[in-house]
Amino acid sequence: MLEKENLDQFSNNLLKSGKIFAPLKISQDVHSFKEVTSLGEADLDYSRTMIPPKKFFISPEEIIFTFDKETEEYYEVQAIDGPVVLFGVHACDLNALNLLAKVYLESFTDKYYSERRDNTTIIGISCTPDEYCFCKSTGTDYANNGFELFLHDIGEKYFVRVGSLKGYQLVEQNLSLFQDVTEEDFSLYKKAEKERLESFTKSLEMSGLQDLLDMSYDSPIWGEYGEKCLSCGSCNLVCPRCRCYDVQDYVDLNLETGERIRKWYSCMLKEHGLVAGGHNFRATSRERLRNRINCKGSLKEGMTNCVGCGRCTDFCPAEIDYVEILNKLRGEDL
């Protein structure tokens, strides 16, 4: 257990483990993970950040290496600039990071992702769902791993779960700030979890979702929402599970030196499906929207590519609702 009054002291001690990044309110409806010197600066009761914490492991844009034609050498750019503490990550985002790790660490090892994860201490925190959350439906409202510590708010205290060896070491290093769990604490934890689960207002039926999408390929619903879609790519940029990226080489004016850049890319942009000869596999917004929804609903490692965070709906300028689309498809006579 961790008393809330001990949080500032805990954050002071965490600074020894690296720079602390926590959710800050940067405008009326937008939060972002920013560097803090004290957790008193953070808004730990936030619903979601606009950009997910994957940005700490897969940079939105980064130089992979620079090259020199004259010397015929290339120089890799350092992936990290020191250890980081990521404080206040929600369960849906932790589950998203766990799935991204399978992409970047299992099929092959991406050195940038690997080094950043090894140098990051992740501390999760419980949340209260708002009108956009449906992580209960996707089974990602609770995290079993992918964190060092997870704090459950039970009032005046945090019920703390330990998720890694590094997490146990953190507790040992701050032993005076933690207390043993009592029966009352455990009862409060179960009560808080029950209330959290009962507070979800948005839901999505997941059974048979892949088959539903396969059979709905020619549904007029894609055209209905495709007409609303601006093809801006906002849904991709805010999604904690989207992992498409583009790699581009830039040569300096001297034609001797240059750099290779990797950056996030969006399947909602018209150029995404463009190939040689000017053919475009997904030339219309209807096709691109269908492709994205199919991608999010497809099964990977026993889970869908969507963790139910609600960002794509919350931050869509056209107010397109992901859950609404799928619920309409399910209600359609196929």
The count of β-strands is 13
Strand order of the largest sheet: 1-9-8-7-6-2-3
Helix content: 25-40%
- Please, how many helices? 12
How far is the first residue's CA from the last residue's CA?
Answer: 52 Å
Question: How would you spell out the order of helices and strands?
Answer: EHEEEEEHHEHEEHHHHHEEHEEHH
Low-confidence segments, given as residue ranges, are none
Which characteristics define this entry?
334 residues, alpha+beta, 2 domains, seven-stranded mixed β-sheet, 12 helices, 13 strands, 21% strand
Can you walk me through this structure?
It is a single chain. The protein is α+β, with helices and mostly antiparallel strands and 334 residues long. The protein folds into 2 domains: 2-198, no CATH class; 209-331, no CATH class. Helices cover 32% and strands 21% of the residues. A hairpin with a 5-residue loop joins β10 and β11 (257-264). It is globular, with a radius of gyration of 22 Å.
Question: Gist?
Answer:
The protein is built from twelve helices and 13 strands.
Topology:
Layout: E1 2-3, H1 7-14, E2 19-25, E3 31-36, E4 61-68, E5 73-76, E6 84-89, H2 91-106, H3 111-118, E7 120-125, H4 135-138, E8 149-153, E9 157-162, H5 165-173, H6 183-198, H7 209-215, H8 221-228, H9 234-238, E10 245-251, E11 257-264, H10 285-297, E12 299-300, E13 303-304, H11 311-314, H12 322-331
Parallel strand pairs: 2-6, 6-7, 7-8
Antiparallel strand pairs: 1-9, 2-3, 4-5, 4-11, 8-9, 10-11, 12-13
Helix pairs in contact: 8-10
